[in-house]
Amino acid sequence: MEKIKIKExxxxxxxxxxxAVKSAVDCEVLDTxxxxxxxxxxxxxxxxxxxxxxxxxTDPDFPGEKIRNxxxxxxxxxxxxxxxxxxxxxxxxxxIENARPKDIIYALKQAKPELDxxxxxxxxxxxxxYGLIGSENSSIKRKEIGDILNIGYCSGKKFLKRINxxxxxxxxxxxxxxxxxxxxxxx
Length: 187
Hints:
Elements: E1 9-12, H1 15-24, E2 29-31, H2 39-51, E3 54-56, H3 62-74, E4 78-80, E5 89-90, E6 93-94, H4 101-109, E7 112-113, H5 124-129, H6 138-149, H7 156-165, H8 170-186
Parallel strand pairs: 1-2, 1-3, 3-4
Antiparallel strand pairs: 4-7, 5-6
Helix pairs in contact: 1-4, 6-8
């Protein structure tokens, strides 16, 4: 079976991540050397973002989020891809290198651009209304909705920024909330 071709350059953390992505799709892949990302590598990533666009696919953990934010702040034509944390763990080790090819393909197909701010769709009040901040189960609800929307898990403040910057429509968001409530109430 022929692999799907990704036009953007995929940015991952390490060499094992490169192998996992290349086994799933046909694309150019750059690694950051994890948190060892230096100015030279960052400049290569920035240049790739100008020429072809990039998709950032980092581990679903604190260092991965830190790398994602650093690159997104400096690069152009950036899309964000996320794989559920539980789909990146093998024998207690967390990383994109542990993801199945189908999870990598899905994440890359669902990659979302971070758009310039026009007017925010959601506010802090919406986060409270939907129980995504300020309640006992807020983090669980954010994780579920983040998985449904394929935007990853993050803090309440970052979640609000993502749903606004990714321009998640009210209909899509409310559908995800309903799906999360079904999952949560059936658990």
